[in-house]
Amino acid sequence: MFSSSSNCFTSASIIGVRGHLTRKRVFASQTITLGDPGLLAPNCYAES
To answer: Does residue 38 or residue 7 have the better pLDDT?
Structure first.
């Protein structure tokens, strides 16, 4: 991640991040959803 992350997300709508460190890095609210996006993969891709 970039050292000046606050400049990278000026027009982004962040609705969730992976963990506490990412939340700090993007200056997100303490109430933002935390979780592993990999848990959603089975819902997006069929098994081959």
So the answer is: 38
Buried residues in 21-42 as b, exposed as e (16+ CB within 10 A): ebbebbebeeeeeeeeeeeeee
- Give the C-alpha separation, 24 to 42, whole Å: 28
Q: H helices of 1-48, where?
A: 20-25, 41-44
d(CA 14, CA 17): 8
Residue 30 half-sphere exposure, CB side, CA atoms within 13 Å? 0
Which of 7-11, 20-24, 34-38 bottoms out in mean pLDDT, i.e. has the lowest?
7-11
Is the per-residue pLDDT at 8 higher than 80?
no
